Amino acid sequence: MSTQLAIPSEYGYVLFTAYLSSLVGYWHMPYTASYRKAAKVPYPNAYATAAETKESKEKYLFNCAQRSHATFLEHQPQFLITLLISGLKFPLFSSAMGVLWCVGRVVYAKGYTDPAKEKGESRIKGSRIFWLGTVGLLGGAFGSAMSMTGLGAQVMGLLK
């Protein structure tokens, strides 16, 4: 059994959204580097020590910026996979969810480094945004897979 794959004409929006996520990644680099410079954390140290963060607000904020960048890098592969799969059947929905994810990642980073909040509590606002996009893309990818394998039609037939 073979399936012919038709790329929807709106798939370009999905590709643009994937590109946008790369720009967010590139944005993280100088954003985090500015906190590294202010904290005077030398390379190759990935983080300031726990003792240093107790003594220096700059070092604490650098760790927050670095952690925000790390979580972006941890999540981006799964984001891209679900975006590209979901976009095969639901390109505009997938692009919208992807843009939400990208915006949420920036809000997350800015919130995590908010000096007015303890323990990066302002990051929660951004996580709510990017998780909404994530859940949408997970659902879209599942829907695309169900549709392309014919399992969706089989399940619906069982429910009749």
| Main sheet attributes: strand count, strand direction, barrel closure | none
- Helix coverage percent: over 70%
Strand share of the residues? under 5%
Give Rg in angstroms.
20 Å
Write a structural description.
This protein is an all-alpha fold and 160 residues long. It has 6 helices and no strands. It is elongated. It starts with 10 loop residues before the first helix and ends with a helix. The model has no long low-confidence stretch (mean pLDDT 91).
Provide the fold topology.
Elements: H1 11-39, H2 50-55, H3 57-86, H4 91-112, H5 123-149, H6 151-159
At a glance:
With 160 residues, the chain is mainly alpha-helical.
Properties at a glance:
single chain; 160 residues; mainly alpha
